[in-house]
Amino acid sequence: MPIRFAPLRLPLRRRLQTAAVLQWVFSFLALAQCCLALFLLALLRELWLPALLYLAWLYLDRETPARGGRRSPWVRNWPVWRHFRDYFPITLVKTAPLDPARNYLFGFHPHGVLVAGAFGNFCTEATGFGELFPGLTPHLLMLPFWFRLPLFRDYIMSGGLVSSDKASVSYLLDQEGGGQVAVIAVGGPPESLEARPGALTLQILSRKGFIKAALQHGAALVPVFSFGENELFHQVPNPRGSLVRAVQERLQKLMGLALPLFHARGVFQYSFGLLPFRSPIHTVVGAPIPVPRTPCPSREAVDRLHATYLERLIALFEENKTKYGVPPEKHLNLI
Question: What residue ranges are annotated as transmembrane (predicted)?
Fold first, then answer.
């Protein structure tokens, strides 16, 4: 296949958009390793004293990722995020008002390869979350492992990322006065192995932990569907039962991380690379599902609310799919 090179003359705005997405992909794939290497280098060189002081501070600050994190409005409003938004572009769509006096648990679907829509909408202000939902503070849940890495943990917390462990979710949803939003990519890393253009497979039938958490804290459930999330990357073929999928699933069980073998385009050519395609993302926030506070929910109560959530999620998808490029004959595949 011949290589399609990017034109030599492109508007400055497009170059800035590409640079913004390039640094975002780097932050996902390599920034954690670079931060760890930098910390170890400081520890072994002349900066060992500041490194030791930082290590002591890390111990004192160890609970912060599970207690709301430490967001920075300055970081969330960096101009680079507007260029990131415009690259795809990403749009946040509001379908119903949300009372800021309540706490919410957003179920984000699908996970995609790198959850670009979740990051753009809930870890930055580029798409106007604060204007669309005044009085609400979003927190995107991320695997606890990432908050154990020095320096990197502080960077991701500045955007509003918090640990996904139970204590973190409970802390957010127990806040008096409301206004807190815990955003969880329900399918988790395993669902990223299903992400490819045209895919509509959601791993959700056995995912009921977020339902139980909503009941325990009386937090309203909100289904969120991000149209276009799976269109950003191709993946190496990995059907269920294949050797590639077996290795990926084994590594996921051992490491807690999924390793999708994805590819899309490059910086100076459009034929191969790790940059996502310029494909629009429309993240549609559904209407809230009222949830009664039930400190010790029964299995039956969890199953009923889970069934209701699935109905609302499917309805949200069906009502909006033709607006955002999904053929009318295509439907969600829930597994």
Answer: 21-41
